[in-house]
């Protein structure tokens, strides 16, 4: 199957900034790494207030519906006129920096979230973010400096048998 290029836009005051990632429309788990350059107070639906600050936000999700990873990540990284997921309220204020993903029909979202929760420098900016359908405290993590994709990959593979390859792509 041929990979597709997704054009992702960021709206942190610079309208012509674009990033692209290459992936296929297959099911899997992903972690979107966004960079924040400013301070802003955001209302995240009925969940509450998130105080955006400079640094990196990592959002963990899964894509098992139509279009798989290609469709879901494309949705999250473009402005949504009617937000569906918590990340839709936040992503228009951030710049996509990286995406970490795996083509795997096994649900791995909670394991990935736990790895991030235990990573050095991680904090939870808003409990309940992206985790209303599981027991995790959050699926959104804040890091004052860019989190290490290699650390993440090592820890995920160390804690899961038969985990599929994790792809790491930086935005261009």
Protein structure class: alpha+beta
Total number of strands? 9
The total domain count is: 1
Task: Report the total helices.
Answer: 4
Beta-strand percentage range: 25-35%
Characterization of the model:
- The protein has 172 residues and is α+β, with helices and mostly antiparallel strands.
- It has one domain.
- Helices cover 19% and strands 33% of the residues.
- The protein has four helices and nine strands.
- It has helices at 68-76, 86-90, 109-117, 149-158; strands spanning 4-9, 18-23, 28-36, 40-44, 48-52, 55-63, 95-103, 140-143, 167-170.
- The strands form three sheets. It has a five-stranded antiparallel beta sheet. A two-stranded antiparallel ribbon has the order 1-2.
- The protein is globular.
Task: List the keywords.
172 residues; alpha+beta; 4 helices
Short description:
With 172 residues, the protein is α+β, with helices and mostly antiparallel strands. It is 19% helix and 33% strand.
Question: How do the helices and strands line up, and which of them pair or pack?
Answer:
Elements: E1 4-9, E2 18-23, E3 28-36, E4 40-44, E5 48-52, E6 55-63, H1 68-76, H2 86-90, E7 95-103, H3 109-117, E8 140-143, H4 149-158, E9 167-170
């Amino acid at each position: 199957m041929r990979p597709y290029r997704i054009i992702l836009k960021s709206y942190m005051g610079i309208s012509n900034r674009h990033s692209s990632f290459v992936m296929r429309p297959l099911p899997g788990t992903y972690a979107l790494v966004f960079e924040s350059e400013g301070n802003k107070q955001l209302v995240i639906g009925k969940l509450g207030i998130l105080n955006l600050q400079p640094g990196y936000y990592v959002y963990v999700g899964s894509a098992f519906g139509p279009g798989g990873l290609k469709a879901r990540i494309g949705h999250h990284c473009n402005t949504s006129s009617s937000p569906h997921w918590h990340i839709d309220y936040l992503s228009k204020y951030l710049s996509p920096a990286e995406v970490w993903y795996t083509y795997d029909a096994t649900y791995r979202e909670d394991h990935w979230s736990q790895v991030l929760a235990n990573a050095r420098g991680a904090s939870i900016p808003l409990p309940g973010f992206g985790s209303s359908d599981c027991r995790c405290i959050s699926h959104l993590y804040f890091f004052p400096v860019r989190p290490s994709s290699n650390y993440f990959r090592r820890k995920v593979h160390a804690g899961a048998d038969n985990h599929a390859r994790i792809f790491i792509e930086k935005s261009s």
